[in-house]
Structures are given as C-alpha cells and as structure tokens.
Amino acid sequence: MPAQAVQPPGELDPQVAQLEPETQSLDPVAADASTVFARDDIVVRDPLESALMSEGERAALQAVADSEPGGSYYGGRPAFPATWSMMETDYVQTPFPQVTQLPISSGFGYRSGGFHGGTDIPLAPGQEIRPVANGVVSAVWQGDNPGGGGYAVFVDHNIDGQFVQSWYPHMQAGSIRVEVGQVVDISTVLGGVGSTGRSTGPHLHLEMKNSDYVSFDPLRWLQTRETRLEVG
Ligand SMILES: [Zn+2]
Fold first, then answer.
1. Would you identify the CATH topology of the domain 71-225?
2. Which residues are near ligand 1, the ion (C-beta closer than 5 Å)?
3. Which tens digits make up the pLDDT trace of 114-167?
4. M23ase beta-sheet core domain location, by residue (predicted)?
5. Interatomic CA distance for residues 125 and 121, integer angstroms
C-alpha cells in the first residue's frame, strides 16, 4: 500500500482510511499525483559514493585546473582557486582507508625536541597513500627539498568551503603518481610510504594546515568527521 504509506495519518483521505482491509483499493488515490513516491524520497545518499568522481567529472575539473595559471604554492589559500572553489566536499578519510587500525609512532603536539606539526603513521614501505579528501595537488617534491620532507605531495582541499591543505612527506623514491595541478579524489593513489628525507624509518608524517597556515591535529580532526576511522 505505498500510496497510503507516504501520507501522514492525519492527511489520509477519510474515504480510503475507512475502507476495510479486504475492500481496499488503490484506485481512488492512484490518480492523485501527490501520493506517488518522488525519486528523492527513496534515494539514500551514500557519502562515499558521492565523493568518488566519475571520469567525466574528473575530466571537467581537470580542464579547469589546466586553464589556471597556478603552480606550486605554500600558504593559506588554494594554488588553483577556480578549481578549488568547484570542489567543495564534506567527505574525509584517513590516507589509508583500507587499514582499519592505524598505528601511531608520534602524535601531534609538543615532544622532546620541539613541536611536532603532524602525526607519524608507521606502515610498510610502499603502502599506498590516498588523499584525506578530494582536492587539487598544489606541490610535489621529488626528494630535492631542503626541509627534510624527502619525496612529498601537498593537496589543497575545500572542506565545507574551508581551505585545508594536507601534506604527505617521506614517500618512497619514485613512488609519486601525481603532479602539480592534478585533480584527485579519495580513490587516487598519491604514492607509497617511504623513509626519504629526515626520517628514521618508513612512515607517513601526516600534516594538515588551515587557512592561517597553522597546523592542526590531523587525526583528531579526521576522527571527528570520519566514522570508519579507528586509531590503534
Ligand atoms: Zn612526523
């Protein structure tokens, strides 16, 4: 009886409501367009599914990025602003969505030796690293930077309209699969875990910056937004 089920009881047609079960007929209400299911009433929004881009969607956004003059940029604003403005998302994940329990060797915050601006996640060399959300690659280091980051990828995100940048340093040499200006989604592999730069063992130092270009606790932030995250 879907035709009745969509109506709150108070709005049932009295004639229909009074029918005995064995004499019920949908005929009287079937002609009333207001009693049919709208498509939006039965579509359940899957946030993961909606965050994944179709080929066409990605190509359209990439065309915008390719037309922008942006290049590597480090600061609290997007390197590719037009593309960034079109990529608002609310879906975030850890860089290792396939790993259910993330080991942490050093957390965000003060430690002996100074302030640690990210969270260290030790995983096997080559473990695939994905972006924490859809975004645009704003910088790539091929092991040639003085800061100790080794091979690194930086991605700009538009999270509910807010600028967020994520860093993925210490990647395995030669593992980086993206370039500056590339549109990425949550399924894109950026590269693999390594120990390049100032690092004592294979790990990802996940660091995230806000629009003031201040680092904030990445896993705490992800934990409050992402339901599948389990930190071990
Ligand atoms: Zn670190």
1. Glucose Permease (Domain IIA) (2.70.70)
2. 118, 120, 205
3. 899 999 999 999 999 999 999 999 999 999 788 899 999 999 999 999 999 999
4. 115-211
5. 12
